[in-house]
Amino acid sequence: MTILTRRAFGISALAAPALISATAPLQAQSAATATQPASVFGATIGAYRVTALLDGILPMSTSWFPGGSADAFATALAKSGISGESIPAPINAYLLQSDSRTILVDAGLGGLEMMGPGFGQVSAGLAALGVAPSDIDTLVMTHAHPDHVGGMIGKNGPVFPNAEMIVTSAEHQFWTNDGIMAQAPEDAKGAFQLARGVFGAYADRMSLIEDGTEIAPGVTIEIYPGHTMGHAVLHIDGGDRQLMMLTDAVHSIDLQAPLPQQGVMFDTDSALAAQSRVRLFDRVSSDAVLVTGCHIHFPSFGRIARAGNSYRYAPASILS
């Protein structure tokens, strides 16, 4: 069931003007962000160097995972050495570089201050790698939540002036549907306006794609809906090494590997998101595929294996 609440849009009581007029991350940074060193980590997958870019770390709460058992949560988190209700959750974007392509997957919060200071570090990560905004040739929007698209625009328009934007048709249709927006709570409408602002900034170079589209050699977009209705994951075929970028199919690997049916309050359709998560976990565990994800502990590369009727996550110890 699709539930249109402010939580499902990843925002809380934010005004649209504050979202749309956010300062571009490459034009200005908060003092807190500017003093932090860039956090980047890369792995070679076939023809691509895939680098995780840490935008910031969000202290989530177990209360953000509705309908679950407090005892089950405590047991799952204790296995990761986490106690209490606070769950650290990174916000990661990704850079894919080959001899001919420079692809950015999501862009973090940018200048949005909705989650407090310490975010907007994707720009510093790119700079540390020697990558200018104008170097990005393809900008992938996995979905239109603010922590993924805030860094795509600033006061002067698109941050990445030469990039073609890639987004699934289903995601674009959801956020541009006036009827759906009308059903949303008033203080969630800012998320729609932000998404539409990003779409508008890249309108002359935006490609709407379908499930299974190869956007670059060996890089395929697949739709696993539920978190949002056009939520995209990326499969990178590196020959003897495969990578599945789970994006927001996972918000807490510590909770959702052992409890894969557990949703998060930001899901548009929690039941559908759980189905997608289980399908992904089944796939990557069966094939021993390397995984990464936008909210998996930085540096964010690892593997998911079966553990009885559930799963477990193990960080990758050796990558080159």
- Helix content bin: 10-25%
Give the CATH architecture.
Answer: 4-Layer Sandwich
- Taking all Cα atoms into account, the compactness measure Rg is 18 Å
Reported for the largest beta sheet, the result is: 7 strands, mixed
Q: Count every beta strand, where a strand is a DSSP E run of 2 or more residues.
A: 16
Key words describing this protein structure:
320 residues, alpha+beta, Metallo-beta-lactamase, Chain A, seven-stranded mixed β-sheet, 10 helices, 27% strand, globular
Outline of this structure?
The chain has 320 residues and is of the alpha+beta class. It has ten helices and 16 strands. The protein is globular, with a radius of gyration of 18 Å.
Structure characterization notes:
- The protein is of the alpha+beta class and 320 residues long.
- The chain has helices at residues 16-20, 31-34, 70-78, 122-128, 146-149, 169-175, 178-183, 189-201, 253-256, 270-287; strands at residues 40-45, 48-61, 86-97, 102-105, 138-140, 153-154, 157-158, 164-168, 206-209, 213-216, 219-223, 232-237, 242-245, 290-292, 301-307, 310-315.
- The strands form three sheets. A seven-stranded mixed sheet has the order 1-2-3-4-5-8-9. A seven-stranded mixed sheet has the order 10-11-12-13-14-15-16.
- A hairpin with an 8-residue loop joins strand 14 and strand 15.
- It starts with 15 loop residues before the first helix and ends in a 5-residue tail after the last strand.
